[in-house]
Every structure is written in C-alpha cells, then in structure tokens.
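Narrative summary of target 7.
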Amino acid sequence: MRMLPPISTAHSAVPILTALTDEQLIGQGRPTLAAQTAAHTAANDDQIAKGNTDSSFDNQHPEHQNSEAQIKPMRYPILTGAPLSKAQTEALAGEFNTLYQSVMDTLDGNDARYIKRVYATVVYSELVARGLLAVAGRLSSRRHQLSVWLLGTTVLSFSKILNNMELGHNVMHGQYDWMQHPHLNSQNFDWDIVCPAPLWQHSHNYLHHTLTNIVGRDHDVGYHLIRVTDEQTWTPSDRYNPFKTLILALGFEWAVAFHDIQISVDEYADTPQLPLIMQKKSRALFAKIVRQVGKDYIALPAVAGLTLGRGSAVSTLSGNITANIARNLWTWAVIFCGHLTEQAHIYTHLDDNESKGDWYVRQILGSSNIEGSKLFHILTGNLSHQIEHHIFPDMPAHRYSSVAPQVKAICRKYGLGYNTGHFGTQFRQVLARIHHFSKPSADEWQTYTQSIATTDANQVTENGAEKNAKKEQRSRELGRGLGKYIPQVVRQAWFYAW
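Modeled conformation, tokenized:
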C-alpha cells in the first residue's frame, strides 16, 4: 500500500482557542497566570498541612472561591460547574494546543508505516487463525485438536482485538486522515463488528467526546442499562446491575451496535425527518449484522465443512464464537476502566459558556488511564492512555505515551487530578462502583417507597374502564407473542427499517 502525499495537515477535533496574554488579563482586571499559579501552590501547601490530600479538593484555593464548581466530598465525585477559573482554563488550553500542534506537525512516514503494519498484522493473523481452526477439526488426536483449536482461537481473538482497538477505533477517529490513504481513513474504513462505522462515529466521536460524562447527555454513562452515579435515579432493576453488566460485557459489540439507534430516536424525536433518518440507520445496522453473522457463523464454517469435513465446520464455528466473546469482554473492560473508576468525575450539566479549556478539564477529570507494557497499550488501542485520547482524539494513538508525561505535568501545574493505575486496580474500582450503585441509599429507598405509595393511591381512584384501556395500550406497545421478550431498542430498529 503506497502512502499518498498529504494535501492537508491534521487538525484537532475541537476548535483551537488562544490563551489570553498577561497584558490582556491585566486589562480585564484578572490576575496573571504566574500570580494564579503562586496562589494555587500556596493553597495546595495549606491543604497538605491540614492533612487533606484528596484530589477532589486540590482546586479549592482562593481564586476558586467565586467559581460555580461544587465538588461533593465522596468516592464518586460529581461536579456542578468548572473547577478552574476562566483565566486558568484559557491558559491551560494554550498549553495543550501547543503540545498538540507540536506532535501533529511532526507526523511523517514513520506514523504511516506504523498503522500499515498494524493493518497487515490484523489481516495475516486472521488468515493464520482461520487456517488453524479449520485444520483443528481434521486432526485425529483429541489432544492435538484442542491444542490447535486453542492456538487458532487465541490468534483470532488477538486479530479481532487489534482490529477493533488499535486499528478500527483509531482510524475511524480520523487519526490517519492526513495520510490520504484510500482505505485507512475515517470515511471509508469499517471494522469487524456488527456496528456500522457511521452509527458508531455519531454516538462516539460526536456525542460521547463532546458531552463526556455529562449525565443525561453522554449516553455512554451506564449505556442506558447500568446505574453508575447518584445523579441517576435508583430503580428496583438496578439491584441486578452486576448481572446486567455481565450480559453487557459478553455482548458488548451488540450493545454498541444498537446504542446509536437508542440515542437517535430521542435526539431526532422532534425532527420531521425522523422516519427517514431512522430508516437509513436501521437498514445500515441490519445489513451489517447480516454480513457479520453470515461471515463468522454461516459462510466460513460452511466453507470449512464442505472442504475439510464436519469437524472443521464445528471447530471454525466454535472458534469464531469464542474469539468474538473474548474481544467483547476485553473491549468492555478497557472502556469501563477508562471511564468509571472511583475518581472518574460525573458532571450534572453542560456549561453554556464552556470554553475549550473547560472542555479539556472535563475530559481529564472524567477519564482514567491504565498502566501496562507496550504490548498492553497496543491491545487497548492505546485507550490505556484514556486521558490523552480524550483531550487529543484525532492524534495518532501510538503517540500518546510520548506526550503523557507532559500532560501529567500540566495537570499537576493546574491542580487537576491525573487518574492512573494498574489494570487490576482500575478494574476492581469499576466493579466496586457498579456494585455500590446497585443498592439504594436510605434516602433513595424512602423516595422509591413513597413513589410506589403515590402510584397505588392514584390507581385506586381510576375506574375499571380506564384501567382496561391503559392495560390494552401497554399490551400493544409491548407487542404480541415473543415480541414482548425482544428489547425495545431492537423493536424500534426493526420498525423503522421496514
């Protein structure tokens, strides 16, 4: 694959803002950055002297006294406003913009060769894996069958993970659009899962990266399935959070596939073009599902069976199923560790006057890094550098490790927590968070019981005809026969598709 000469330079996914100079700050009657930093350092020293080293309080120094931020002293922080002053966030934005541009200006053939090697590794490892799975069914020894099957499944899992994380996710973020490559670009590339690229790019690139961790706006906060913050009202179904999380993890690619359908039905609810928009999305989704299911679970096992026998069909099918589940589990774990650790901040609303610096701060506080080896970072698609990814989403991900020390230093300079830890630590925190919010607090339980009592009282006042009418309406909404057992979002997609 020949790299075409670039016709444009890479650019950020968010607008570039220029930090105010000291003269401009003085002209507006605000302290200079040096004065703010000195005050911040003094305040931090005072906090340390008082024994308060919690990162949630690092920013409570004099110049923040008039800020709208209200940080709750709890394990799972919630912010109601910006923790830094506008002057600070403008200065912080200037430093991050400079860092970003210094990297993007140096992108060259080495970066292009890197992503091409990743692509080649995905292709050849998949070919080798599928060959091993087919051969495994032909071996006479059970021991050899199992050994070759395990090897083939492991290699196929590796290929699918690499395709999903380091290749697909990053290419579809536009990280390599500057290459002008006919295939490795955000407009043409599609990955090896059931979710079509355009649907994922809308729910992830556009909504998640813009509205990160704003409850009610960022639909990745719990995926409409799991309660992960006090800002989400507790319901009895939340008691099953651990079980629902297991189902989500096992079928994560399916959750991602229908995620944008669920979002778009609400997002375009008041748009006259809703039926047309949803028809296009739903048809693209079902077409991709047919292709993926047909490839992994019908075509390839059938070809192996027709050429090598029934045993090869079984080994191919079982290997494909296992590899897809392994990829789903790994992807889920990496993503949840990057967003739902103990100190991942949740925001209650979006500031109407949010600047790029405020956006940077929200990305930093709402993200968590995972420490590990170089191979570990590659297998996570470098989402182990989740903080760097969220502030520089279109920077080639393999560059994150080189800028991480500078990002951490800037965070320390402005008193922002830089959440990082080993995979085991971050994963335990995620599981603890899910378990914690599956149980109601005393106040939440009281609110729930009161709402039940109110509902029961209202039902007593209804006459029989009204009750029967509502019951019939609910029955029609749920559908008939087996339809009531199909998730609502799947029924919505099917409805709009046809």
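The chain has a mean pLDDT of 83.
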